[in-house]
Amino acid sequence: MTAIAPLPIVDASLDEPSLAIDPALTARWLEAFLHDELIERRKIGRAVLGLSGGIDSALVAFLCARALGPENVYAIRMPYRASSPSSLSDAQRVVDATGINVETIEITDAVDGYLRHAPDADARRKGNVMARTRMLVLFDQSARRNALPIGTGNKTERLLGYFTWHADDTPPVNPIGDLFKTQVWALARRLGVPTEVIDKPPSADLEANQTDEADIGITYAKADRILNMILLGYKDDAIAARGFTRDEVRLVRRRVDGTHWKRHLPTTALVSGTAINEFYLRPVDL
Hints:
mainly alpha, globular, NAD_synthase, 5% strand, 4 strands, single chain
């Protein structure tokens, strides 16, 4: 009887859905999106955006400049007294690189004026007041210039609920809302966003030494991979089997499930057969 040789051991890694994008194609698509949403659909040729000095608003500034022309893009810098001075200088790098218009409007007096009536406000409430004050300024500056405010929130932040409701998510058009943070980095490199902006740790800049990843509790690189698999229907065990701890998977899953309400318009009680956004829809809503 002939001896059977043992089968070789194959170290096969588990497949994982890719987050890779084609940056050149994505840039062309998003520029066409902005042109269509502003000029074709709304007949508005100007855009206003809040320029924080971070990578998300920097990327949106580059996309708007390419889609609408830099002379039609207005960046508003809105520092609070606790904001990092480097945020202003990094925002200026974006302005210099794109040629867009810029104005700085300090929000300290407006924020502190309200907070004098809310002495018990903790850091979270103060951050929300700052975010909503910035959006108030952004919409008013848009009305001043007959322009449309443009959103700058990315898909990772939106899924994790890492934004202020009726603030960061308020603008009617957002070109990067379907891009994970790691995809934002890839596209920013393609478009030439200054390296100082790309390479610094992402931060909401609401208090000293704050970083997004410390607030969230996981790196964007890991969060994006987990989020991508959650969206594609992977169970927690299957995600953990691809190199994550169960605590990491639970953290991301809990944030997605617990903030689902923030990604919807206010819930309206139905008392008729013609409720807006339920039964009364137009072709552009579908």
